[in-house]
Structure formats: structure tokens, C-alpha cells
From TrEMBL:
Keywords: Hydrolase. The keyword 4Fe-4S does not apply. Belongs to the thioesterase PaaI family. It comes from Auritidibacter ignavus. This is PaaI family thioesterase. The lineage of its organism: Bacteria, Bacillati, Actinomycetota, Actinomycetes, Micrococcales.
Length: 144
């Protein structure tokens, strides 16, 4: 398992081109209990009615909480995967920068629970909020 901060950043950057990278999310801070970042959202993220698709918010919730939860268990040679994603879409949004804050609510031996809030940078209004329950799993032997 990746075990140093710069290795984790490298690993995340190498994942560009994966499904999660379609959100344009940038990690600004990663700790074992908190993750912060931002994304530029626009027409590429719209549903047919010209607003950001709820699946984009759900993807951000899943991605951000998974990275934080995996960081929390990396020293045990583990990583975390989402089991249940409950994301509520609170306001419509068409384009601009969103700020994302994720915090661990519970971190147990086998499971974790994270809260993620997505806010419009320009207005400070919450656009979406999600909770992700995660399972801690042993890292594959062939993993970096």
C-alpha cells in the first residue's frame, strides 16, 4: 500500500483518466479525518436541463470520502471502498467552482462513515451533502 504522503499524491494523480477524474476534482488537503478540495463544473457535467447532474455530486462524495478513508487505514496495509452513498441534492447549479469538505464521523476497525459537503464558492451555499459508509479491506498484494 502507498505509505508516504507524496506517494499518495502521485498515486492519485496517476489515476487521472479514471471515472472519478471526469469531475475535474482537485485534492487540496488529505488527512486521516479530513479531505478538502475543489472542482470546476460546467456544461460537461450537465443533465439535459442545463444544470449539474446529481451523479456528479454523488461521484465527488464517493471519491473524496474513499480517499480520506483509505488514507486513514493505509498504515494497516488496507484501503476503503464505499458500501452506501446517500447524497442529497439541495440546490441547482450550472457552472463555477465548488468547494468540497469531507470529515470522518466514525472510524472503526472494519467500517468508516464520512460526511461530505459540496458548496458553491461564489455564494457559499450548500449544493449537495452526502454520507458515505465504507468498508476497510486488505490492500491487494500487487498494489504499488
Amino acid at each position: 500500500m502507498v505509505d508516504r504522503l507524496h506517494d499518495i499524491w502521485d498515486h492519485i494523480n496517476e489515476a487521472q483518466g479514471t471515472f472519478g477524474s471526469t469531475t475535474n476534482f482537485v485534492f487540496d488537503d488529505i488527512t486521516a479525518t479530513h479531505v478538502a478540495g475543489h472542482a470546476e463544473l460546467g456544461p460537461d457535467h450537465h443533465q439535459p436541463w442545463g444544470i449539474v447532474h446529481g451523479g456528479v455530486y454523488a461521484t465527488i462524495v464517493e471519491s473524496v470520502a474513499s480517499v480520506g478513508a483509505s488514507y486513514a487505514v493505509k498504515d494497516q496495509n488496507m484501503f476503503a471502498v464505499g458500501l452506501h452513498n446517500g447524497t442529497d441534492f439541495l440546490r441547482q447549479f450550472s457552472s463555477g467552482t465548488v468547494l468540497v469538505e469531507a470529515n470522518a464521523l466514525y472510524q472503526g476497525r472494519t467500517q468508516q462513515l464520512w460526511d461530505v459537503v459540496i458548496t458553491a464558492e461564489a455564494t457559499g451555499k450548500v449544493l449537495a451533502r452526502g454520507q458515505l459508509r465504507l468498508q476497510n479491506l486488505p490492500a491487494p498484494e500487487n498494489h504499488g
